[in-house]
Amino acid sequence: MRAFFRRGLLLASLRLLTLPALAQTTKTDSVNIRKIYDEALLRGQSYDNLRQLTSQIGARLSGSPQAQQAVDWGKVPMEKLGLDRVYLQEVMVPHWVRGAKEKAEIKPAKGKGVALNVCALGGSVGTGGKLRAGVVEVKSWAELAALPDSKVKGKFVFFNRPMNPTYIETGRAYGEAGDQRRNGAVEAAKRGAVGALVRSLSLAHDDFPHTGMMRYDEKVTKLPAAALSTNGADELSQLLKADPGLTLELEMNCQSLPEVKSYNVVGEVRGSKHPDEIIVVGGHLDSWDLGQGAHDDGTGCVQSMEVLRLLKATGLRPERTVRAVLFMNEENGVRGGEQYAALAKAAGEKHLAAMESDGGGFTPRGFNIEAPEATVRKMQQWQPLFEPYFSGLFVAGHSGTDIGPLKDQAKALVGYDCDSQRYFDIHHTAADTFDKVNRRELELGGASMASLVYLLSKYGL
């Protein structure tokens, strides 16, 4: 059955081809892409580079000493490749620190307290000691709006809307549920609450709380905001049904410090025919502070560096300049992506395309493309070349956060797309560690990215 399904995908892709495209997707391209995959699977360096990054440095939140260590580390493997240029781009980044481990405990009217696994959301203020209050649970903005002020004032608002498990594309579920994390503290403050509690953005049922960025509005009070593990959220919800008058005690020691100077790390190979046309491929070097930042986004960084290595190792000198960028501060500010775009615009650089890997290092599926419809169709003509590797899904869709600021400068923004079913189990948690990454999946992803960069460099858009 699977063979027939794959054959159907291939035939469907072939129907997209025009005669000029058939002339382009030559046997030579197929052979060269096979060389890229062979090199990646036989001698790929992404996995070993990731091992170094995660074991020697680990978590690397923007502004931290570990983030600077990651910058210093990032230069080394690219310099060893003998690239035409390796350099740093200065960028000022926020410096938020978590402080001592957070504590939370449910205090029922009767019986023993129940400890909860929680973590502060990125950018949150601390509690200034122990903060104890009642809890009101909501699952939508409409529910919160419908509550009288007396039910909200002086309490924690507990946002308990889960990610939608019926979506096949887990990123869609994450995006729809993420408004609670981003805006929960602001909306709770408007109603006189003392804090915000948010169900972790995960489809898994476990005890790992998921951090992530939240925002404040200077017009309302800044409330402490914490994420509960999914198991913890379920338990709190059940206990509230039995005892609506229970209280919760929360202690968080996080704070924001003055901004810190940091850097994007950049390496490039000059194009042999069109050096003024640039193809960017990148991931973000910073990570949240709970795990090792392996899948998010150590994998994207090492895959981007591997793109340059694969092109050099196979002798496929790009006709257009290919630039790998390890962006700083994607998680809590996007300062690196914005600074890269601003510097490129000021320098009058011409970007053909930008590609980002920030969905983990899982099995490749294809690419999401942000571009005019005609450009998307042109890139879809290359699908048959990727079908033998089961990574031939070229669809219109979101590309990436760090390359977003290049939208008006590049002809196409491309997001590397891999299997997402396990990603949000570990996303922004202490479980995002090197042991969760599969060597073969990671190297296949780098080969997919390098193959598309090869075609973009050869044919343009």
Explain what you see.
This is Carboxypeptidase Q. InterPro entries: CPQ (IPR039866), Peptidase_M28 (IPR007484). Residues 264-445 form the Peptidase M28 domain. It is found in: Endoplasmic reticulum; Golgi apparatus; Lysosome; Secreted. Its main location: endoplasmic reticulum. With 461 residues, the chain is an alpha/beta fold. The chain has two domains: 2-95 and 258-459, Zn peptidases (Aminopeptidase); 99-253, Glucose Oxidase, domain 1, CATH 3.50.30.30. The chain is 39% helix and 24% strand. It has 15 helices and 16 strands. It has helices at residues 2-15, 19-24, 27-43, 46-57, 65-80, 141-146, 149-152, 170-190, 230-242, 294-313, 335-346, 373-380, 383-386, 423-426, 439-459, and strands at residues 85-97, 103-107, 114-116, 118-120, 130-138, 156-159, 195-199, 225-228, 247-251, 255-269, 274-284, 320-327, 350-356, 364-370, 393-396, 410-418. An eight-stranded mixed β-sheet has the order 1-10-12-11-13-16-14-15, with helices on both faces. An eight-stranded mixed β-sheet has the order 3-2-9-5-6-7-8-4. A hairpin with a 6-residue loop joins strand 2 and strand 3 (114-116). Helix 3 (27-43) runs antiparallel to helix 15 (439-459), helix 4 runs antiparallel to helix 10 (294-313) and helix 10 packs across helix 15 (439-459). The longest helix is centred in the middle third of the chain and has 21 residues, at 170-190. It is elongated, with a radius of gyration of 23 Å. The two termini are 36 Å apart.
